[in-house]
Amino acid sequence: MKNLFHYFLCPDCKASFFDDGGAGNKLDGMIKDVLTCANGHIFPFDDGIPDFTSFQNKGQDKSTVESFGFEWQWDNVPRTEEDLYFRVFEKPNVTPEFLKGKLVLDVGCGAGLQTKIMAKCGATVIGVDLSEAVRAAYHNNIEYRDRVCIARADIFHLPFAEETFDYIYCEGVLQHTKNPQAAFYSLARLLKKEGQIFATFYTRREGWFMPFLFFRQPLRVFLSRLPSKWCWRICWFSIPLNKIPILKHLFRKTIVLYDKRNPGSKAIWCLNYDFYGPHKYQFYFSPGEIRKIWQDAPIHLTILHSEYDYPLRGKRK
To answer: Among 188, 229, 244, 266, which lies 20 to 30 A Cα-Cα from 41?
Structure first.
């Protein structure tokens, strides 16, 4: 992992953590589990995971960080192989060969499951997350430590220079930030020329919410205000509600979430907590709004792949 640290810069002053004579792989001031930049800013380095959140953590709500961190550590392998391949390849419409040799940033990596798939394909991957899920991600990728680095960092204050990455992967993250558009733009600036980005938003129909949100959103307003342990326990009921003969179809169309690629009980529990849990932000965008976000990006992005009339993957010109 240390051979990837030369890609990092101090999120405060953008100074390097490395000296000029170290061929890009020698830490400048790594003393007793801390990283020190050239200007003296200090960051913890714990169990192989650099933590850049001590600089400032204004980019994300504390409840969101704790909610997703708890979820990913409770079940650090909640998804099936089928679902992982769908998320990494089918949804962005890329092949395993596309990833080979690329420097990839996996934003909001959670337990690092997609990170691992990309590393298997020959990519060099830096996975970042703001929550304690980075510990699960680190251990899930231990066999690829020569080309995977996991770091704790804020999407609004990422410790990298502009034009660093060949490919940026951000799935299921932006809608849970306080400003999804600004978060997307902070990522786009990190793309190399001709680099590509895959980014998803929660979607709704033009002009109004999807019908199922009519039932789920009011329930979420209530559940997300409960202490996390109570919300977690209540979300357990999504398991039996998803298995009641005949009625399960009614529940799935109204208040209970279900993913056919992840039919296991723990996955159902996590999926519903993911929706109803005590995280502050959960935004929805129409296809037109997503298109405008891409069109107004501070760099020019050519759309390479769309779904239901909104862009998912594009290239920096």
So the answer is: 188
Residue 9 neighbours by CB distance under 10 Å: 20
Q: Where are the alpha helices (DSSP H) in the chain?
A: 62-74, 81-85, 96-99, 113-120, 133-140, 180-188, 211-223, 228-235, 238-241, 247-253, 265-276, 287-295
- DSSP letters, 175-236, are GGSS-HHHHHHHHHTTEEEEEEEEE---B--TTS--HHHHHHHHHHHHHTTS-HHHHHHHHT
Residue corresponding to tokens 């009641």: 244
Structure tokens at 208: 């109004």
- Is residue 105 within 8 Å of 190, Cβ to Cβ? yes
Mean pLDDT of the chain: 86
Neighbours of 277 (CB within 10 A): 24
Higher pLDDT, 242 or 4: 242
Query: For the domain 51-202+290-316, what is the CATH code?
Result: 3.40.50.150
- The pLDDT tens digits for 303-313 are 999 999 999 99
What CA–CA distance (Å, rounded) separates 122 from 98? 10
- Rounded Cα–Cα distance for residues 77 and 266 (Å): 10
pTM of the predicted model as reported, rounded to 2 decimal places: 0.88
Q: For 81-104, how does the pLDDT look when each residue is reduced to its tens digit (9 = 90+)? A: 899 999 999 999 999 999 999 999
At 266-275, the pLDDT tens digits run: 889 988 998 9
- Packing angle between helix 228-235 and helix 265-276, nearest 10 degrees? 130
